[in-house]
Amino acid sequence: xxxxxxxxxxxxxxxxxxxxxxxxxxxxxxxxxxxxxxxxxxxxxxxxxxxxxxxxxxxxxxxxxxxxxxxxxxxxxxxxxxxxxxxxxxxxxxxxxxxxxxxxxxxxxxxxxxxxxxxxxxxxxxxxxxxxxxxxxxxxxxxxxxxxxxxxxxxxxxxxxxxxxxxxxxxxxxxxxxxxxxxxxxxxxxxxxxxxxxxxxxxxxxxxxxxxxxxxxxxxxxxxxxxxxxxxxxxxxxxxxxxxxxxxxxxxxxxxxxxxxxxxxxxxxxxxxxxxxxxxxxxxxxxxxxxxxxxxxxxxxxxxxxxxxxxxxxxxxxx
Length: 319
Ligand SMILES: Nc1ncnc2c1ncn2[C@@H]1O[C@H](COP(=O)(O)OP(=O)(O)OP(=O)(O)O)[C@@H](O)[C@H]1O
Ligand SMILES: [Mg+2]
Prior knowledge:
alpha/beta; 319 residues; disordered C terminus; binds adenosine-5'-triphosphate; 9 strands; 10 helices; 5-stranded parallel beta sheet; 18% strand; 4-stranded mixed beta sheet; binds magnesium ion; Rossmann fold
């Protein structure tokens, strides 16, 4: 699944490619007689075709609307995701259809369902980067949607503080009245997330600029959560009324049970304190899901059952 941040970068790159291919095409038209350029010509034709295919795909999204409004948290209406089928037996691969749901601020929801049932696709759609969706989404402003991927990656060459504040640098906040509070919150969450040893390692001079390359999976997930907690704090400093939507794609999957439960409780506290609307993909057992989330569960269900049912409304009753 493509990380939405990467997707935006790809979108920018696509625009560069369009400019590049159009200009290159004009150059080819000028030298059309030269047979030695035929291979390159074919490659450029393919490139242009793929850009047009993408344009067509986007144009096909007429049945999709995503409305960003600072005053709303999150609701979805008649949402459907259907990918082009990979096998020739079916026309499309319908993940779910007619999903209608309102999400309340200050609550943490579990998004469950077996592998391949559409959980990450749902998140990408909420983030506005899935071209295969139809329906309507009402959601807070794009800059207030925070997405935490399952396998986070970090910009290399930054020290501890600037990694946590990325893409901003600490100098951006050093004159702000809340700077001291920001530093003390970072220290507190570093402790809560059991990251003191990582911080120490990051601050030794020989590791200062490459410390993120040696993080274990669970450490990387905790650093990503720390970045997210800091983002929430900063967004609320800038606008205390801001509605924040958190999309957490299995951020605790690489943690041991003890860390997992302590961090889950911390997450829940932060969600309540800052009145966040949070959705977390969670593969825990049914009992754990019930204890941790109560009735706040969105269930994408059992894939085999979906496939064997003749109806196309793939989604389980709970939605
Ligand atoms: N761009 C795409 N084109 C076609 N099919 C896709 C695309 N992206 C995802 N799929 C398919 O859609 C299905 C759902 O994928 P998704 O990543 O949403 O599942 P998931 O519930 O997040 O699974 P997991 O728990 O393994 O992360 C999968 O069968 C996947 O192969
Ligand atoms: Mg997934």
